[in-house]
């Protein structure tokens, strides 16, 4: 068999590339290297702004030309770094050499020795990961999640009064509305989205073992903790002053657990909507030209929700692995986090793919109210809860001598289908007040939804 030309190994870089491409701007190797160049350049500017080691602040024009090194970062820089890393066998050192090369091209050789000054690779990496993950989450992942939440809110509002039979333990239960049930998912996701939005993105910049030793040896009269804090916070991320060689990654563990939590809720949404489709509560809108089955022409399969379900499971497993691995570093540093963090984009990519499929799937379903109505009408026994509760209230009010209303209704309805006539006959014979009897006789499964419509608006 002939060997294929090089092909994408991950479906995220092949079949699903279009759905996750925006993450590549931040969480690809190129995105990480661009952020590394940004940190190196901004550290140079920070040092010269303070006129350290005999330097003078760069002019605004010089700063702009220097910042263009990362702002215009593209294929030429990607190729340059690949070639250099093949020699250095060290990715961050290759970035340092790139910055030095560009300084020379800009006529700024005088400050070249301040490139990567007193920095360990993990100073650059921690800031770069904080920047890239922050941008990927806030600019790509969260907006997609918010779009799905917005769609759920719209569906909840549209179907707030669409009465349907609930199923607790898979069995007929007290009716609800489709809108209220969809609102539950929107509410859950909004809570987690707010937690993700409040996440910290931390970096360290304190040298080889987190002690600022080299900084102090070079210039003992500078308040290096204050300077490096100001530098990191000036990048728009938070500063961690107490670390080993690496930033401890606890913020990443917290963030990935929150995103995994959101994924669990989304997974629950996917399986519930799939089940509603299976029950006939939602009909699927045919997509022109699409094939549901290779052999059964009639089928429209709920593939959007199945795709989302599977990708959320992959994403959740990767996020859990990231959180478990990144929380530990042997003594002052080991290298397990290096390869682990390169999979952040893969974990978020599968989550993003699921969000896209959920958004598309939610737009391809239509509520089948007649099916909901027929299901309700076939399950009048769900009114047993209402009847026994009213009887208990009547007993408490002294208007009934019934001794065990729960047992009475259990004998009538448990494991049995009871229709409207049987319930009406039963209620008519109850020892309760006339007002309570009238309310119960007027009740139907479709009307027994309590405050479900109002719950849609609760926050």
TrEMBL record:
One of its GO terms (molecular function) is N6-(1,2-dicarboxyethyl)AMP AMP-lyase (fumarate-forming) activity. Residues 329-449 form the Adenylosuccinate lyase PurB C-terminal domain. GO terms for biological process: IMP biosynthetic process. Pfam families: ASL_C, Lyase_1. Catalyzes two reactions in de novo purine nucleotide biosynthesis. Catalyzes the breakdown of 5-aminoimidazole- (N-succinylocarboxamide) ribotide (SAICAR or 2-[5-amino-1-(5-phospho-beta-D-ribosyl)imidazole-4-carboxamido]succinate) to 5-aminoimidazole-4-carboxamide ribotide (AICAR or 5-amino-1-(5-phospho-beta-D-ribosyl)imidazole-4-carboxamide) and fumarate, and of adenylosuccinate (ADS or N(6)-(1,2-dicarboxyethyl)-AMP) to adenosine monophosphate (AMP) and fumarate. Pathway: Purine metabolism; AMP biosynthesis via de novo pathway; AMP from IMP: step 2/2; Purine metabolism; IMP biosynthesis via de novo pathway; 5-amino-1-(5-phospho-D-ribosyl)imidazole-4-carboxamide from 5-amino-1-(5-phospho-D-ribosyl)imidazole-4-carboxylate: step 2/2. Its EC number is 4.3.2.2. This is Adenylosuccinate lyase. It comes from the Bacteria. InterPro entries: Fumarase/histidase_N, Fumarate_lyase_CS, Fumarate_lyase_fam, Fumarate_lyase_N, L-Aspartase-like, PurB_bact, PurB_C. Keywords: Lyase, Purine biosynthesis. Residues 59-308 form the Fumarate lyase N-terminal domain. PANTHER family: ADENYLOSUCCINATE LYASE.
